[in-house]
Amino acid sequence: MRPGFAPDTDDATAIHLVESAGIEEWTSSPEFSAAWTRGNDFGGELGQILILPDSNGAISGVLAGWGSRESRAAGRFHFADILGKLPKGVYKIAGEIPPGERDEIALAALLGQYRFDRYKKRASSERAGLVAPSGIDAARIESIAAAEFLTRDLINTPASDMGPGELEAKFIDLAGEFGARVEVVRDSGPLREDFPLIHAVGRASDRKPRLLDLAWGRKNDPSVALVGKGVCFDTGGLNVKTGGSMRLMKKDMGGAAAAMGLAQMIMANGLPVNLRLLVPAVENSVSAGAFRPGDILNSRKGVTVEIANTDAEGRLVLADAIALADESEPDLIISMATLTGAARVALGPDIAPYYTRSDSLAACLEKASVSASDPVWRMPLWAPYEKMIEPEVADLANAAETGFAGSVTAALFLARFSTRAKRFLHFDIFGWQPSSAPGRPKGGVGQAARAVFSALPELLSK
Ligand code: BES
Ligand code: MN
Ligand code: ZN
Asked: Mean pLDDT over residues 22-49, rounded?
């Protein structure tokens, strides 16, 4: 399903956004029935809806409660819920929308169209549509929503239908849509030789591990490599997870899904970027051939890694992919991964922690995060914790002995594999909406991609 605005028509029903502070103005206006507004107890509270009938009882317009700046700040995409409460039909926002809220409202209208009904016998019913508000770049907003839908579909599709092979097929589709070049390393010989960590993590599954590699754009543009964690299912390996911790692990390719969404936004909008997208696609399974705690593995970079815990598999597959990206000395490497439970404990499901040593990059992201309604928060690559991931017998351990700063030590581990790129940025995302919120039904959800997409132009000019 592709998100989109409704074609403009004179028949579109007007939606008036009414703040609670502005309610008097409405009730005293001769155009609207004060009795109807008061009688229905409409006070302009955020999300309240009042349908205005004409003298024949047909819908002549809608008042939508728009609360106050403060009430709107406690959440995002409120307009999605407003549109969701209206009867099916085509609507148009009346009057001027403050420029600071236009994009968010328009995006909310599209995000609210998302349904994951692939496994439902009955498809969901038709909903209210919105004519593109004036002053927005409709094609851009549509492309952002389309990328988010791709991310959600990839995450929501269960591991039974989204293994490494199926993820590869989606990856090739994405490349095909934009004429990008793709390479896949799938044969066990080359994979074992050139990407030993990806091979070790994925080898226990009969759905074979692989590295997906896409390239798009012009050589002379700033080079950006996106690396997404594509663990199609994470059992934990021999350090097997318990039932509750494993329940949602179909989402462990959420980093890959977010990175693919971001790549789609970049390509669809023709950003002047020399883009590379790398996804190590594996299943972290249990079998006699599985890698074990205590194993010492070589990595693409030549750094040896002692396996403290087979459940810290994401950083292993990412390490080899980051090392590959790093070899061409790009301007920026961005890693996106559902990497640690500790990130969720620190910031919850809404805010994605990120790590970078570049203050200017962090400053750009902080601004873009707000303008894109995509909350991200900087965390420290705290050098004194490096020793937590340095074991006696190898160069690195894939997990610290203590549970301290789990998201930080995972980020420090990844950063060791990017030594030649100009800048390194890593997001430890959650990728899942635990309960429905406006524009985001329960299930897979994108994080950080919109913030990066809006930050990129400024970021690459520095
Ligand atoms: N995919 C998980 C992390 C995860 C768990 C993300 C729950 C989101 C929600 C990852 O592979 C993992 O298992 N990490 C371990 C690392 C530990 C063994 C050092 C964790 O966070 O417990
Ligand atoms: Mn794991
Ligand atoms: Zn994992």
From this structure: 86
